[in-house]
Design a protein that fits this description.
This protein has about 130 residues and is mostly helical. The protein folds into two domains: about 1-80, no CATH class; about 85-125. About 80% of the residues lie in helices and about 0% in strands. It contains four helices and no strands. The chain has helices at about 10-35, 40-60, 60-80, 85-120. Helix 1 (about 10-35) runs antiparallel to helix 2 (about 40-60) and helix 2 crosses helix 3. It is elongated, with a radius of gyration of 29 Å. The chain starts with 11 loop residues before the first helix and ends in a 5-residue tail after the last helix. Belongs to the SecE/SEC61-gamma family.
Length: about 130
């Protein structure tokens, strides 16, 4: 049976790195709005610098390393997928559209039949 452990940040250094990353992220937006009188270059420079710093700090934390490893594993798995040829993709798309059309027609006919049955025959509301 597979273990379903929840992994959390264990060390205080990792917790501090994550806290610094969050503070830098919030600081990026605060700096952007506080520097509105200094011009667009100062605003965007502060925003980008703080965001890059937050990403770097998060990247060196254990959570960041696990995220990068997950991304690499996902990319490796995506390369293993055998994608359908163009002809197969077009055929499958056509099958899906045809099925949706047939189901829509069936549901519309069922709705109209029940409407006719209940309102016209049973209740006699329509004249």
């Amino acid at each position: 049976m597979a273990s379903s452990e929840v992994q959390t940040v264990n060390t205080s250094a990792d917790k501090a790195k994550l806290a610094v990353a969050v503070v830098l992220l919030l600081g990026a937006f605060v700096a952007f709005y506080l520097l509105s009188g200094r011009g667009a270059l100062a605003q965007w420079g502060a925003l980008i610098a703080c965001l890059v710093a937050a990403v770097v700090v998060f990247g060196v934390s254990e959570s960041g390393k696990r995220l990068v490893a997950f991304g690499r594993d996902s990319w490796r798995e995506a390369k293993k997928v055998v994608w359908p040829a163009r002809k197969e993709a077009i055929q499958m798309t056509a099958y899906v559209f045809a099925f949706v059309f047939v189901m829509a027609l069936f549901l519309w006919l069922t709705d109209k039949t029940l409407e006719w049955l209940f309102y016209d025959l049973i209740l006699g509301w329509r004249k």
